[in-house]
Amino acid sequence: MITDVDHVQLAAPPGSEERLRTYYVGVLGMTEIPKPPVLAARGGCWFRAGGVQLHLGIEKDFRPADKAHPGLRVAGIERYGARLQAQGARVEWDENLPGHRRFYSRDPVGNRLEFLEPLTAV
C-alpha cells in the first residue's frame, strides 16, 4: 500500500546545478539537502521545503516536458507569486481548477512547476 510521496524527480541538463540552486533556494525559498556521495558523483541537486522534496537529476539529452509537472501547495499564493515575479520568474495564473488559486512557472532549465493553494481549508 502506498502511504506517501517521498520525492519528485525532475531532469536537468549537464552543468546546470548553479542555476538550479539559485532558483530553487534563492527564488523558491527551498533548502538544498546533501545527496549521498555515490549519487552526488552523478551531478544534480536535491531540495526540500517542509515535507516536499524535489530531486533534480542530470540527463545528457535533457528536454523539459511540456505538460508533466509537480503540483506544489503554497500558503499565501498571491505573495508567493509576486515574490517569484520580483525575482524575474514568469508567473502564469490559471483559474481553471475549482476551489483553488494557482499559477504555473518554469525553472531556469524549463521544467514546468504548478503552485496552488486551496481557497478553503482542506
TrEMBL record:
Name listed for the protein in its UniProt record? VOC family protein
Q: What is the lineage of its organism?
A: Bacteria, Bacillati, Actinomycetota, Actinomycetes, Kitasatosporales
